[in-house]
Each structure stands twice: as C-alpha cells, then as structure tokens.
Amino acid sequence: MIEMKKINGFYYLGLMLLLSIFHSNTFAVELNAPQKVIQETSDLLYDIVKKDKDKLGNREYIFNLVDNVIEPRVDLDKISKLVLGKYWRSASKQQKVQFQKEFKGLLVNTYATAFTEFQDWTVHFLPMSLSVEDSRVIVKTEIIQASRPPISVDYRMTLDNDGGWKAYDVIIEGISMVTNYKGSFATSIKNSGGLGNVIKALAEKNEQSKTSSIATEDVQISS
Question: Does the CA dihedral 66-68-74-79 come out positive or negative?
Fold first, then answer.
C-alpha cells in the first residue's frame, strides 16, 4: 500500500503535471497529442529543476515556474469548478477569482515541498487510442522506481477552444485528486460557515508560507 504522504505528494505533482520532475520514458512508443503535452512538459521541467536545484526552496521562483511552464498546460478554471462543485455555482465572481488565486497558492506551497522530497522516477506511457472526435481523454501512465511496484497515475485531459490539450485531474492508484479535494473543501465550507471563510483561511495560510519562505531565504543569505 502507498503511504498517504506519498499519495498526497503525487496528487499535487500530478495536478500541475509534476510528473515533470521525473524523467519521462516512452519506451519507443509513438505518443499522441495529449501524451505529448505531458512528455514535453516533463522534459522541460526536468531540465529546469536539474539546472536550478538550489532555487527550489524559493517560493517566488516556484510561483514563476507554475505561471510560465505549468499553468498554460492545466485547465485551472475546470479544476476550480470541479473541486467546489455546487459552491462554485453559487459563488460570486469575486469569490471565484479569489478562490482560484488562493487555491493556486496552496498548490505552489505543496509544489515547493514536493520538488525537494522526490527523486528521479521513470514515466511509462501506456498505449491509448485517440480519434478526431475526442475532446476528453484519459492518459494512463505508470511511475517506475527501482525495487518498487509500479504506481498507476492517470490524467484526465480536455481539448480547449484553441485545440490544445490540458490536464484537469490526476488519478493515483484509482483515487481522483479532484474528488479528494471536492470532499475536503465541502467539509471545510460546511464547518467554517461558508466559502468566504475558506478563502480567507487559504489566504492566511498562503501568506504564512510566503513569510516563512522569505525568512528561510534570509537565514540562508546570512549563513
């Protein structure tokens, strides 16, 4: 059984296509368009992480990495709608904007931790069919690590209006990240008295993480 800590790490990695820090291996199989999105992002981020390893504790650096490399390949609007469910439909325009901002901050915080915790793995793309009519697909992969059983990691992807494929969910060993977040946020909203309070709590947590990151950088500079 996979440890819950490791599952949580893969959730965040998967959501932002952070298979990317694991060097992908296609085993000479020709990839189709949605698979290529994952592979290309993987190769790009792998090179960046390898080159800038000493910057991975810098939250601002991670934020820029998300903005420039990962977010263009992820459907954050769709993810936000799915994880909030009925609460998204009843949210004001301002709440939707604020939630997406803080939700992204939450992911970046975990992202930074994941970068420092995980080592090289291999991504094995499983065969899949794709027709010209398909606008939603599941890209199936396995994460291979020496001396351990393969881990199933599947991506739900959608075709956007510009003809590009974007990820909106990751399924780890049959467990959906979106479903997991949806249940978590629903409970938090009920217990806290509303979506506004959850957004506020997220903002405070993100600010604390930002402050902690700055403090850590100051210590490293003065050491």
Answer: positive
